[in-house]
Amino acid sequence: TSDALLVFTPSGRRGRFPVGTPILTAARSLGVDIDSVCGGRGICGRCQVVLSEGEFAKHGLTSRAGHLSPWSAVEERYRSKRGMKAGRRLSCTATLQGDAVIDVPADSQVHKQVVRKRAEVRAIEMNPATRLHYLEVEEPDMHKPQGDLERVQAALAAQWGIEGAAADLDVIRVLQAALRKGGFRITVAVHEDRAGPRIVAVWPDFRDRIYGLAIDVGSTTIAAHLCDLASGEVVASAGVMNPQIRFGEDLMSRVSYVLMNPGGDREMTAAVREAISDLAAEVAAEAGIAPGDILEAVFVGNPIMHHLLLGIDPSELGGAPFALAAGTAQSLRASELDLKLHPGARVYVLPCIAGHVGADTAAVALSETPYLSDEIALIVDVGTNAEILLGNRHRLLAASSPTGPAFEGAQISCGQRAAPGAIERVRIDRETLEPRFKVIGCDLWSNEPGFAQAVAGIGVTGICGSGIIEALAEMYLSGLIRADGIVDGTKGARTHRIAGEGRTFSYLLHDGDPAVRITQGDVRAIQLAKGALYAGARLLMDHLGIDRVERVTLAGAFGSHIDPVYAMVLGLIPDCDPAKVGSAGNAAGTGARIALLNTAARAEIEDVVRRIEKIETAVEPKFQEHFVGAMAIPHATAPYTELAK
Ligand code: FES
User: Fold this and answer.
1) Rounded to the nearest whole angstrom, what is the distance from the C-alpha of residue 132 to the centroid of ligand 1?
2) Which range is the signal sequence, renumbered to this chain (predicted)?
3) Ligand 1 in reach of 27 Cβ (< 6 A)
4) Which of 23, 443, 594, 616 is most exposed, with the fewest beta carbons within 10 Å of its own?
5) Which atom of ligand 1 sits closest to the CA of residue 74?
6) Edge-to-edge strands, sheet with 498-501
7) Which CATH number fits domain 211-349: 3.30.420.480, 3.20.20.140, 3.30.565.10, 3.30.70.100?
């Protein structure tokens, strides 16, 4: 027989094929995942495979030789133009000459796994909504009257198996010129979602790279990651301040701005969209591409940021019952949001969970996948509000707790944002009560030789959120503050650093200009913030009927900077095995990237969000009770009798 046995790795799929069959054709018939943009024309190089004879024994082949055709002219041309790694062949032109084991390297698979970054819990499998397809389109013929689009559709069906693709009007408008300019060879971008396949862009030449943006619209900063939609790689990242800050520092002041200034929402919508277009231009320039090469964008953000981005008046979110205009995920065109990307670019906005648990929290869930685990996890994203998720694959609860901005250094006498010069680490000697600390931008501790010179350029300017947490925890462990949060004035007998201010006391952390002190007011502000956070977590635990969590994950910028042990010393989070307390980094941004690169993940999070039970902290009397108990350090246990003392 002239049939040869072909085995593909790593999938293990196998079949017999006539000698002379192109490897890509055999792969397709076996359902083996091999990428291609040019459709087997030897142009894109995405279809590369490796002949791996070493695998023979494992796969039970008898023949000792694996055979492929000699290099074709097409391969030689591709290799001389674009280069190819040793041992690689273009599967669209290499044909089978005898039994063979063929390895499909990860970079040749459409559904490849994206290289995982540190702190990422889930592997991202590529499955982008928008893909490129090179087409050879039949030329118009008097005897077969048909429109150009119909012939493009026929080519998509015949060459790519994509049936019934619709097309944007913008595409139809430029299609004829593109076809004629390209000699009836064009590249189209096809976007596919529940509505079916749709041609969203056309180029009169061969294209093999398009890009997507994953954007986290925070109330303070907007962060963007530009990703290659073929490899999934992040090719550029950048962040900017949210320009809405000029309308109001925090979320509620922005809602107030809308309430007091009719049309204020439109000003903020325009401001944020403009900032996003600028950010897109910035990351595109960094990656050496044009903003017009960006075909997709995925957005996450809290409900108010979500509404303002979409151009929805957020007034209803300013007060109970905090009704969202729409919580469901949104699929739209970038042009509807006035974003300066490719005119056919598509936008996907993750669903919001509730009136103040937004699409950013949905993205955290997508990245941390508590809904797949048996372990009961508490996931906290700490910002001006703390968004809290608790549960496992059986039940998942969500709530938001009004922590206020203290954790971000606001409302703290010497507080500041986490920036160079801010104290971020603190230790206090239990005997001498002398402190040492580290500031952002300097590797030395304050008591190490050379510290003064090392910080000369930056200075010690204040204390940031993680610094204040450590300072308070260390003060508590040194006996400088009591369980009820009072700075203990009697310790003034042991250290000059305790000073009286009226009827309260403060601790001098750094005697410089400015002096950095921890005042009674600072302790109170953190007690309120951490009390709210802890009470929210406890409330969800009550609902779930548990009194201990198995894992705690801190997400967000603050969450990734604080030391989990200090968070537990102060009682920000419920007790848990310290080995099971970790930080997730920017989990919301990661979730946005997952949704950008994998359309199946969009359906997944939409389904999860529908099943999440939303708990409204404001209407639960238990919340107040827990809050009072949680003011103590680390926290009192119900029924909070200790506090009565
Ligand atoms: Fe494009 Fe083989 S499929 S080079």
Assistant:
1) 13
2) none
3) no
4) 443
5) 4
6) 498-501, 504-510, 516-518
7) 3.30.420.480
